[in-house]
Amino acid sequence: MSVNLEAAVMENINELKVAISEKTLEVADLEKELKRYESVLALLRDDHNRNARRKGRPRGKTDLAEVLGGLPETFTSKEFIKAATRTKKPSVYLRLALSRWAKEGRVKRLERGKYQKVRNGSSHRLAA
Q: Consecutive sets of 10 residues in the chain, 128 residues long: mean pLDDT of each?
C-alpha cells in the first residue's frame, strides 16, 4: 500500500508543478497587460499635462483685450463679436463679457448694443 500512496503523492506533486507553471505564465501575461495599461495611462497624463501647460501667452483674457484694442473708439456688440470670432468663444459668452465690462466700467454702454471704450489708466486690465 505504501507504493500506491507514494505514487499518489508523486502524481499530486507533478500536478501542482504543472499548475504552478500554468499560473506563472498567466501571471506573466497579466503583468504584460498591466504594463500596457500603465503606459497608456502615462501617455494620457502626458497629453493632459501638455494641454494644461500651454506654451506661449495665455489664451482667453488677452485675446479679448486685443480684440477690444483693435476696435474703433465706439463700436457695436456685433462688431465686437465679429472681431472676436478667432477666439472661438460663443457669442453668448462675448456678449456677457461686454455686459460685465460695462458694469465694471471698462467700457461704457451708450445704448443697446453700442459701446464706447473707456480710457482710465491701463487697458491691459481688460479681461473676459
A: 83 94 92 90 81 58 78 92 87 91 92 88 47
Q: In what order do the strands lie in the sheet with 74-76?
A: 74-76, 114-117, 107-111
As given in the structure block, the three cell numbers for residue 119 are 480710457
Give yes or no: residues 72 and 121 share one domain.
yes
Helix (H, G, I), strand (E, B) or coil at 84: coil
Total domains present in the chain: 2
- Rounding to the nearest 10 degrees, give the CA dihedral for residues 70, 74, 79, 83: 10
Q: Which residues contact 42 (CB under 8 A, 6 or more apart)?
A: none
pTM to 2 decimal places: 0.46
Give the CATH number, domain containing residue 99. Answer: 1.10.10
* Residue 54 Ramachandran class (φ > 0 left, ψ -120 to 50 alpha, else beta): beta
Provide the pLDDT for residue 112: 92
Cβ atoms 76, 115 nearer than 8 A: yes
Identify the bridge partners of residue 109 per DSSP, sorted by sequence position: 115
